[in-house]
Design brief:
Elements (H helix, E strand, L loop, with lengths): L1 H11 L2 H21 L4 H33 L12 E2 L2 E2 L2 H27 L3 H6 L9 H24 L2 H29 L5 H12 L1 H35 L9 E5 L8 H11 L5 E9 L7 E6 L16 H9 L16 E4 L5 H5 L3 H12 L3 E3 L9 E8 L6 E9 L8 E4 L1 H6 L2 E10 L7 H10 L6 E5 L10 H28 L1 H9 L5 H41 L15 H20 L13
Helix pairs in contact: 1-3, 1-4, 1-7, 1-9, 2-3, 2-4, 2-9, 2-16, 3-4, 4-9, 6-7, 6-18, 7-8, 7-9, 7-18, 8-9, 8-18, 9-16, 9-18, 10-15, 16-18, 16-19, 18-19
């Protein structure tokens, strides 16, 4: 929601350069109205009325696109989603109202800025078509710096308090502060451009003279790039975090085969033949679990029991103070995989050692020792805390209220394993607990995960025994760029090209007379095309740089807020790392080059000589 709120500014800030084009066309008309006796207040009301209408239209479009982006990104940003439900998606109505107000305000201000400049123009300059650099307004720079610093401080405070509304307000204020500072930045760059060659020097000068169009265009590029970079940073961090915290069920490439019907089950030999023919492996073992001795009597919970000295003092879901969380993280009794946010849970299987290596990926030496324990009637666990004096205590609790049964068995803990925390019972130990052994399927070991076609051929070979469900362990999802992120970068690129095109076309129209003069004194025809390329580069390049800086800062604040929000939970989940979305940055860095190339291709190199009215 935070980044979607910033994305609203992408469209509404384009109102500024679009309105500037209309103002340029009406400049002479406004000047004629002034000559006919209209005062500045009347001109201002006419132009500002146009700005309000266009600003509201742009704000409405931006709001619709922003809400659509928020709904599309809901599965990725669900920690910022609250309350009401619309069309199957969750949203926060109060946040939508705030975003709507911000969108309308941003659109109106973006349209009013060039309108105010046009209404205050000199009548003679308007009739003659001359342009003069607008005076630098210190108050706008002061306001921009104050908004940027205040917004950053407010966003940092919101991140510390884990308040999404405060963070959103601070980020928007900070970005609006950058908008206010942009005209001054353009003026500074124009003064520094005196040492540049002719074309870029004229491009910077024109951007400074025509700040009413250049500044909103740069701000539109900045908003589009910032939102894409911020969302890209969050998604890249989330994908890396998921890959780092991924817990496989089986060793990579292995799969579980489960018949969906209990009748006409294939034999182990038939499953092995199908796996050897279709998957190229003969590593197949039956998978068995435990069930209540009497079918239909309910569920029987079978779990190993920790010795009292190995029990973690803090259980999942407990509300801990900061000092208690530090103690829990340092306590070795609380550092095991099964201690998750959902509580301790151990998966129970029955095995004689045949399926053990395929289920756990243990090394041959550990597998051989575990198989001996199972054949001797003992049990094997994957958590050494359950083993006390060479034995493991197992408790069976019927769900129908029957009497629990507790027994001690010879035990062995695998030193290394893959998958969830497991308890492997031997058949004698399962029967001594009053349980029966139930076959659930087969585990198949392959070197690499089988693709979709191989899976289909394998299930087709067993189709005569009824439908089969496959669970394939493919490992953690790749951390490469997602298609959603590329689409966001492409959308930001389109906005960048559009803003640069509008501002470049306006600058070309404003500088037509000067280019004609250059042509008259012998300037090469390619000067106009080179000038258009430089003008597009100023708009797209400056906006992209500001957007990348703002987007990386936004991503850092959002990730800090999320990490701080979850830092109070126990067990504490893995934090989100700060990851720079280099693929997104690479795409966005190419966008200014595309804008410059487009400006060069669509600009006429030759112009007729025109008379100038001075």
């Amino acid at each position: 929601m935070l980044i979607a709120g910033l994305g609203l500014l992408e469209v509404v800030l384009l109102v500024g350069p679009a309105f500037a084009v209309g103002v340029r066309r009406r400049r002479r008309d406004l000047a004629l109205v002034a000559v006919a006796g209209g005062d500045s207040a009347q001109l201002r009301r006419v132009v500002l009325a146009d700005g309000v209408v266009l600003g509201v239209l742009g704000a409405v479009v931006g709001l619709l696109l922003g809400v659509a982006a928020a709904f599309a990104g809901r599965p990725l940003m669900e920690q910022y989603v609250f309350n009401a439900r619309f069309g199957g998606y969750r949203c926060w109505p109060a946040a939508l109202l705030v975003l709507a107000g911000v969108a309308v305000l941003a659109g109106v201000l973006a349209a009013l800025a060039p309108a105010w400049t046009a209404a205050r123009q000199d009548v003679a300059a308007g009739l003659a078509g001359r342009r003069t650099p607008p005076p630098s307004r210190t108050r706008w720079l002061v306001l921009g710096v104050a908004l940027a610093c205040g917004g950053a401080a407010l966003a940092a405070y919101g991140a510390a308090q884990t308040s999404a509304a405060v963070i959103l307000t601070g980020l928007i204020l900070g970005e609006l502060g950058l908008v206010c500072c942009t005209p001054t930045l353009i003026g500074v760059l124009a003064r520094l451009g005196r040492v540049l060659p002719l074309a870029p020097r004229i491009a910077l000068r024109d951007a400074s003279r025509n700040r009413a169009a250049a500044a909103p265009a740069i701000c539109a590029v900045m908003a589009a790039v910032a939102s894409s970079v911020a969302l890209g940073g969050y998604l890249a961090s989330d994908r890396v975090r998921q890959a780092d915290t991924y817990q496989p069920i089986l060793p990579t490439g292995h799969l579980l085969v489960n018949p969906e019907h209990s009748t006409r089950r294939p034999t182990l030999a038939q499953v092995t033949a199908a796996a050897q023919e279709k998957l190229g492996t003969d590593a197949v073992a039956p998978v068995q679990t435990v069930a209540c001795a009497e079918a239909g009597s309910g569920y029987c919970d079978v779990t190993p029991q920790l010795p009292p000295t190995q029990v973690c003092p803090w259980q999942p879901g407990d509300v801990l103070s900061a000092s208690q969380r530090r103690q829990a993280r340092a306590d070795p009794r609380c550092q095991f995989a099964e201690l998750t946010r959902f509580g301790p849970w151990v998966q129970s299987w029955v095995d004689d050692g045949a399926a053990l290596p395929l289920l756990t990926g243990a090394d041959p030496a550990a597998t051989a020792t575990a198989a001996e324990v199972l054949r001797a009637g003992g049990v094997v666990v994957t958590d050494r805390r359950y083993v006390h004096d060479g034995r493991v205590t197992v408790r069976m609790t019927p769900s129908d209220g029957g009497t629990p049964i507790t027994a001690d068995f010879p035990g062995y803990a695998l030193p290394a394993f893959v998958g969830e925390s497991r308890l492997l019972l031997s058949e004698p130990s399962a029967r001594s607990l009053g349980l029966r052994v139930s076959s659930v399927g087969w585990v198949v070991g392959t070197a690499t995960p089988p693709d979709r076609q191989q899976q289909e051929r394998f299930t087709a070979a067993l189709r005569q025994f009824g439908p089969m469900s496959l669970s394939v362990e493919s490992g953690a999802a790749p951390t490469d760029i997602s298609p959603v992120l590329l689409l966001l970068a492409a959308a930001a690129g389109l906005i960048t090209v559009g803003a640069a095109g509008i501002a470049t076309a306006l600058a070309a129209a404003e500088g037509r007379a000067e280019l004609s003069t250059l042509a008259a004194v012998g300037a090469a025809p390619a000067v106009r095309r080179l000038l258009a390329i430089c003008q597009a580069g100023v708009i797209a390049g400056l906006g992209s740089v500001l957007g990348i800086v703002a987007g990386l800062g936004t991503a850092a604040i959002v990730l800090f807020s999320v990490n701080r929000q979850y830092a109070t939970d126990w067990p504490t989940p893995a934090p989100y790392p700060y990851v720079v979305p280099w693929p997104v940055l690479g795409v966005l860095m190419l966008v200014p080059l595309v804008a410059m190339l487009g400006a060069g291709l669509f600009t006429r190199a030759r112009l007729p000589i025109e008379r100038r009215l001075d």
